[in-house]
Design a protein that fits this description.
It is a single chain. By secondary structure, the chain is of the alpha/beta class. It has 7 helices and 12 strands. The strands form 2 sheets. It has a 9-stranded mixed β-sheet with strand order 6-5-4-7-8-9-10-11-12, covered by helices on one side. Strands 1-3-2 form a 3-stranded mixed β-sheet. The protein is elongated.
């Protein structure tokens, strides 16, 4: 016969090392298993929804790109039709910038811009070539300004010398040695040069300008008979008191030295002063 304490120990179950009492799981373990199952289910559902959204977006993307492409083609077609074939953008005016009055009228005449048709079909390259061929403009730019205008920007050439040729013909030459106009008489303030060559080169223009610009103002006012030879050598005459001196200046270079020699030697005897070689000036 067992006493009370012995019966109490016998009735108490022996703990299972795995955490289960007998063959039944504990309530806490069951709750954890149920919660893990629910979380896993929600994760699978969320992943499935994300996958479905990505798949739908991937299916829509080609259709979206095709729609954008079609819209751009339609827009381009509309622009081409409006600019090149319709009467919406008709060329009706020519705007000249960089010249006014008679000079602007000359630009319009030489440019010969065709008006009345679509402005985008105006051949701006051909217009520019016609103006450049005239040589009156150092820079020419032709563009279109919607809806109805062709814009011509010009930079005129500036005469730095007037070359008098055979028969009294006067040609205007710019600083680049380009003959760009023929006139009956030289413009005021432009030095007149007689040339021994058919045309004055840029080197000859530079040499003549240097000679005239280097002289003292008092001597420059008496200059006459400027000539440029075929070898781009410059010579001119100076009026000193009652005498006339011929100055052989030579080519460009050493302008300040040559001008000082001329100022000193002009009072010396002789009718010719040669400073073409500044280190060995000659009077005769």
């Amino acid at each position: 016969m067992l006493d009370r304490s012995t019966r109490s120990r016998a009735a108490r179950p022996t703990p299972d090392p795995s955490g289960a009492s007998g063959s039944s799981a504990s309530p806490a373990a069951g709750w954890r298993t149920s919660r893990a199952t629910r979380v896993a289910g929600r994760g699978l559902a969320s992943s499935r929804r994300r996958f479905e959204r990505r798949a739908a977006a991937a299916r829509r993307r080609p259709r979206l790109l095709i729609g954008i492409g079609v819209a751009l083609l339609l827009l381009l077609g509309l622009v081409v039709w409006l600019g090149w074939f319709s009467s919406v953008f008709t060329a009706t005016a020519v705007e000249v910038r960089g010249a006014s009055g008679a000079a602007a009228a000359q630009v319009r005449q030489v440019a010969a811009v065709p008006l009345g048709g679509p402005v985008m079909r105006v051949d701006t390259d051909a217009v520019q070539e016609r103006l450049v061929a005239g040589k009156a403009w150092r820079e020419v730019s032709v563009s279109r300004s919607l809806p109805h205008t062709v814009v011509i920007d010009v930079t005129p050439r500036v005469a730095v010398l007037a070359v008098r040729g055979a028969g009294g013909r006067v040609e205007l030459v710019d600083a680049e040695g380009v003959v760009f106009a023929r006139v009956a008489s030289p413009p005021a303030g432009v030095p007149v040069v007689a040339s021994g060559a058919a045309t004055v080169t840029r080197a000859g223009v530079t040499a003549a300008l240097q000679a005239l610009g280097s002289l003292e103002p008092a001597l420059r006012r008496t200059v006459s008979g400027v000539t440029v030879s075929e070898a781009d050598q410059v010579s001119f005459r100076l009026k000193v008191k009652d005498a006339t001196k011929t100055i052989v200046w030579g080519g460009s270079g050493d302008g300040a030295t040559k001008a000082k020699l001329v100022a000193v030697l002009v009072s010396q005897p002789g009718s010719t002063i040669d400073v073409s070689v500044p280190g060995s000036p000659v009077t005769r």
